[in-house]
Amino acid sequence: MQHVRTPALFLTVCMILFGHAQADTAVSACRQITDTNQRLECYDQMTIQVAAPITDTVLDERIKQEAANMENSFSLTAHHSSYLLPLTYATNPNSDVFNFTDNPGPEEIDLENLEVKFQISFRVPIKNKFLFRNSELWFGYTQLSLWQLYDSDNSAPFRETNYEPEIIWSFLANESFGDLKLTHFSIALSHQSNGRSEPLSRSWNRIYLNTIWAHKKWAFSFRPWYRIPESKDDDDNPDIDNYMGHFDFRAAYKEDDHQFSTVIRSAIDEDNPHSFYELGYSFSINRKFRGYVQFVSGYGESLLDYNHRNKRFSIGIMLNDWF
Predict the structure, then answer these.
(1) Residue 64 contacts residue 71 (beta carbons within 8 Å)
(2) N or C: where does the chain have the smaller number of CB atoms within 10 Å of the terminal CB?
(3) Which residues are part of the catalytic machinery?
(4) Is the dihedral of CA 237, 239, 243, 246 positive or negative?
(5) d(Cα 165, Cα 189) in Å, to the nearest integer?
(6) Which of the 8 DSSP states describes residue 134?
(7) Nearest Cα to 204, choosing from 224, 184, 234, 247?
C-alpha cells in the first residue's frame, strides 16, 4: 500500500511547493504506473488537488477557467461583462453632438430614446509565467455599441461604438489582509477610441493598475489610471479627465444564481464632480444565458457622451458576468 500512495503524495507536494506548472512531472509519474488501479488512484488524487479552491473565494471558478484557457492559445476568456440589451431607454440622448455647423445633413438629428446596447469583452492568453511564475500576459478587447435599431426613418444607424484593446500583465496574489483577500493585481496599457473622424472623433490612452479583492460572497475591484498625454493637435478631447475621472471602483455580490454589481467612476478633483455609476442585477435563465437588468446614470457612458449626462434603464441577457 505504501507504493500506491507514493505517486499521489508526490503530486500533492509538487502542487503545494511549485504550483500547477510543476504538476506535469507528477502527471508523468501517474502515467508510468503499470497497475491499472494504482494509476487510476493517482489520477483521482490529481483531480482532487486541481479542483481544490485556489483562493477559497467566490472568484475561484473564474481563476480555474482562466488557468485552463491559458494552456490553449486560441481560447477566449471573459474580461469585462458581455451582454445584449435589446430594450434600453435613455432619458436624455445626446443629439446635440451630431448637430454641428458642418453637418451635411438637411435637418437636425433627433435621436430616439429607445435603442439597443451591447458589449463584447474577452481576453486571449499571450504568455504564461511572464517573467514571474504567478504572472500572465494577456491581450484584452472590449467593444461597446449603442444602436438606434428602432429609428427606421433613418435606417437604424449605429450611433456610437467604442473599441478598447489592452495589453494586461496580471498576477495571482492570493494574499490575506484580515478577512479581506487580495486575489489579483494587474498593470495594463489601454487604448480606447470610437474610430470616427473629426469632429466626432474621441480617444485616449491610459496606463492603469487594477487590484481585485474578495470577501466571502463579495468581490471588489479598484482601478486607478494615468492618462498618457497627447499633443494639442492630436487630442480630440483634452478635458476628458474632468468627466471620465481618474479611477473606477467595482463591487459584486453573489447569492446562489443571483448577482448584484455596481461600477462607480469619478474624478479626484472635487471642483469637477462629474461622476458615473452603473447598477446591475443578473439571474440564471439556463446554463448558457442569464437575465440582466442595468441602470446607469452620469457622464461618460460612451466616449462620444463623455461630457454629456444621461440616465438609462435596460433589460436583456448577460452572456458572462464578472464571476
Answers:
(1) no
(2) N
(3) 191, 193
(4) positive
(5) 9
(6) T
(7) 234
Q: What are the pLDDT digits (tens) for 195-248?
A: 998 889 999 999 999 999 999 899 999 999 999 999 988 899 999 988 999 999
What are the cell numbers at 323?
A: 464571476
The interaxial angle of helices 36-51 and 23-31, nearest 10 deg, is 160
Grid cell at residue 317: 441577457
Q: What does residue 260 show for φ and ψ, rounded to 5 degrees?
A: -115, 140
CA end-to-end span of the chain, whole Å?
Answer: 42
What is 299-317 written as a DSSP string?
A: E-SSSTTTT-EEEEEEEEE
H or E segment at 184? strand 180-193
**What Cα–Cα distance (Å) separates residue 257 from each residue in 119, 227, 308?**
22, 37, 35
User: To which residue does cell 444607424 refer?
Assistant: 157
Give the C-alpha separation, 53 to 55, whole Å. Answer: 6
β-pairing, 114-128 vs 135-147, is: antiparallel
All three cell numbers of 296, joined, read 446607469
Question: Whole-prediction pTM value?
Answer: 0.80
Q: How many CA atoms lie within 13 A of 116 on its CB side?
A: 14
The strand pair at 290-299 and 180-193 is best described as unpaired
All three cell numbers of 219 = 468581490
Measured between alpha carbons, how far is 58 from 81 in angstroms, rounded to an integer? Answer: 16
Radius of gyration of the chain (CA): 24
| Residue that is written with C-alpha cell 464578472 in the block | 322
DSSP assignments along 222-260, one per residue? EEEEEEPP--TTT-S-TTHHHHH-SEEEEEEEEETTEEE
95-128 per-position pLDDT tens digit: 888 876 455 554 567 899 999 999 999 999 898 8
- Count of residues in the chain: 323
